[in-house]
Amino acid sequence: MKKSDIYEVAIKILGIYLLVADISKLPGLLTFMGNHVASTTEQGSEQGNLLLVNGLNFIFLIVLAIFLIAYTKTITRWLTHPSDYQENAKLFAERKVIFEIALMIIGGLLLVGTIPDFLYHLYNLISVNDQSIVISAGAKIFIGIITVVFAKRLGAYFAK
């Protein structure tokens, strides 16, 4: 494995992390949009500004994640020296295994960060009757489980 390959793996892992983290924010954004549409016009301009900022943030991070994943080799050429393509580097594993480990960590972090909040809001659902937070956290847990369960397949795909 060349030194430039390590850069490629790191850039692609960053892109995957941004993609998973941003997709996990989508249910919250959709809930916010639904609440904004259903709200009265009292705080419409403030909520409209927040919706615009959150929407643009979501779009920017998705575009950045896709750019990092799709143009990994181009970014690597920008960041590395020509000697990095010839210099060998030893790693403990192949690219596919590194992607699998990274996906397991990303999914695990998403699960560990979401499950306590999900359980708290699920417990308080009876008294508060706020289903949107429970649905949003449930969607994040689903994305985390999918990331962990399909880590080998996704790792093989991204290692290409």
Explain what this protein looks like in three dimensions.
The protein is mainly alpha-helical and 160 residues long. It has one domain (3-158). The protein is built from 7 helices and no strands. It has helices spanning 3-38, 44-70, 72-79, 95-123, 125-128, 131-149, 151-158. The longest helix has 36 residues, at 3-38. The two termini are 14 Å apart. The mean pLDDT is 81.
SSE topology sketch:
Elements: H1 3-38, H2 44-70, H3 72-79, H4 95-123, H5 125-128, H6 131-149, H7 151-158
Helix pairs in contact: 1-2, 1-3, 1-4, 1-6, 4-6, 4-7
Transmembrane segments: 9-30, 50-71, 97-120, 132-151
Keywords: Membrane, Transmembrane, Transmembrane helix
Low-confidence spans = none
Average pLDDT across residues? 81
> Mind summarizing the main beta sheet?
none
Oligomer: single chain
How many individual domains?
A: 1
What share of residues is helical?
A: over 70%
How many alpha or pi helices?
A: 7
Helix-and-strand structural type:
mainly alpha
Q: How large a portion of the residues is in β-strands, by DSSP E?
A: under 5%
Tertiary shape: elongated
> In whole angstroms, how far apart are the ends?
14 Å
Order of helices and strands: HHHHHHH
Overall number of strands:
0
Task: Supply Rg.
Answer: 20 Å
In a few lines, what is going on in this structure?
The protein is an all-alpha fold and 160 residues long. The chain has helices at residues 3-38, 44-70, 72-79, 95-123, 125-128, 131-149, 151-158.
